Every structure is written in structure tokens, then in C-alpha cells.
Amino acid sequence: MTHLASFPSSRESLRPAILEDAVGALSTQSPNGHGALTPTDNAVMHGHLLLHPVQVGLNATGYDMRYEGHLHLQDEAEDVILCSTLIAGKSEPMSVDDCQVTFTTGHTNLIGIPGRRLCRGACLRGGHSVVAGFTMQRAWLDRMADSDASLDPLRRMFEGDVRIESIGVSARLQQLARQCLSRNYSGALATMLVESATLATVVEVVNCLGMACSLPPGMTKRQVRRVHELRAILDARLADPPGMEELCRTLAVNATTLRSHFKAVFGTTIFGWLRDRRLEVARMMLLERSFPVAEVGWRVGFSNAGAFSMAYRRRFGHSPKEERKPAH
Predict the structure, then answer these.
(1) Which 8-state DSSP code applies to residue 106?
(2) Which tens digit of pLDDT belongs to each residue from 102-151?
(3) Count of the separate structural domains present in the chain
(4) What sign does the dihedral 239-245-251-256 (CA atoms) show?
(5) 164 and 273, same structural domain?
(6) N or C end: fewer C-beta atoms under 10 angstroms in the chain?
(7) How far apart are CA 233 and CA 225, in angstroms?
(8) Are residues 112 and 228 in the same domain?
(9) Contacts of 78 (CB under 8 A, 6+ apart)
(10) Phi and psi at residue 211, in whole multiples of 5°?
């Protein structure tokens, strides 16, 4: 939904195409007590929808929605960047012209759409998705950046054909996405939280894109891509990662080179990245309260509860159990 239906089209408006038509036709919306969030409860979906103009051409988008029926979505987009972090649940793939985009829980995706393109997607009965991000018109970039090169990583999203960038998992981007959907505040405070979190998301996305574009000394683009491929493999098999021999065979490179290149790109060892990534995912699961603390540790690859608790405290400064205590 956010990936497709909650971005403005070429019109400078916030009309979310078919989704808004469905909400308007089917729902009886309660008064909005949480700033930019709109409660939605109808025959097709129920939850909260985020559609909020932060600045002219920059909009906060998102939703926490469960689907009681199927929605098939279609609209045109023009000169826009779509950014979304899938916080929880599942989001069906979408297509931009002939280009298909898939979404992975915990990951942040950017889609650069130059010119006018046809976008299609769907929401399936029984599904649940929690997503937040932003839509950015090219005109916003032109107005904000002018001759400033700091936003060039975003400008490049409009180069060539439809461009898709996966930032992967970022604890900071997940935190900001959750803030956008937070219902802890109401009225003006809730609106301020959404707007500040959206602008902070833009800054963090630029930082992530800039780091991906820079080449460490002595490394080629092909070598950097191979290291990112390694990280994707580890991310997909977090609880049961492949051994070094399997990784070397898959990536056609020796262990010494693989370790050296990984540290040059990410500033840490393969093991260090894997440990921190497991703990970041564990923190997300703890905040969602989906599983008991001991099971969270097991699900991210810690066979010993004590080792999980110790590693968690070293990483975040408190124990996994304390993560779930309400803030005072």
C-alpha cells in the first residue's frame, strides 16, 4: 500500500489513488486523535494510515494495516522517489512498468521513478503490514539542493531508467519508521514527531546511499558488490549462517580476501557484523513483543540464554528483559 498507493502522482497533492477511493467508499473513520495518523476500519482493511505533507513535495507515508479482503492497486507516478521500511509483517511485490520490486521485513527500499510510470500492486486478504517512509518529488530536491552536492545520492535515483536501491537493515531507519507510526502522542506533538522523523529519515537515507557509493582504497566496484552480496547472504541466513568455506565457494574468492574486503567496506569483521545484526533483529523482535525473551535469542542464533543476555547488554547497555520495560 505505501509502496504504491500512498504516493502523490504528478499532481502536487496527497491523493493516494485507489486506496483513498476504497477508504472513502467503505470506511467509517473515527476522529483522528494522533496527528497525521488516520484510523481506518472497513470491510477491506482496518488499522492506521499515514499520509502527511511534511513540506511541499515531501510527504510522510505509512500504515499499520490488516486486510480483510483483496485490493488490486494501480496508479501512475511521475518524477518521484518512494522510500519505505517494512517494519513488520509482509508486503506483496509491486511493479513499476516492467520492473518488479520485492520487500523484505526490516529492510529499507528506495525506488527512483524518472518520468511518468505505471505502478501496480496488491494487498491480500489475511495479510498484515507495518510500513513507514516518504515520497519525494524531484521538484523538492531541485528546490532544496539547488547547487548543493550533499543530496547528490538522491539525485542519482533519477538517472537512467527506474532505479531500485535496497539499503538493507538499518536500526536507525527502523527506529525512525516506528516513530512515524507511533500513537504515544496526539495533536500537534504527534504531527511534529512525524515531520521530524521524516526529515531525519531523508538524512539517514542520504548517508546510507553515500556510503554505498564510496569505494574503499584499492577496491573495485565489482569487489564491493561481492561484499554486499556476502552481507545479503548472511542476512538471509542470520540464525544459521553458512561457514567460511561455503561462502568462499559461493562468491569465488579466498577467505583472506573476503575477510579483508568485508572489513574495508563495513568497518568490522564478518563475525562482528553478524553478531551486531543478530542483536539488532533481536531488539526489533523484543520491541514487537512477539516472542518470549529466551525464544528471541534462540531465533537469532544464540543457543545459550546467558550468552544472549551478555551480548545484548554489551551492545545496548541493558539486558533484553529491560528492553521491554516501559519508559518512565
Answers:
(1) T
(2) 888 888 999 999 999 999 888 888 999 999 999 999 999 888 876 677 88
(3) 2
(4) positive
(5) no
(6) C
(7) 12
(8) no
(9) 9, 10, 113, 115, 116, 117
(10) -65, -35
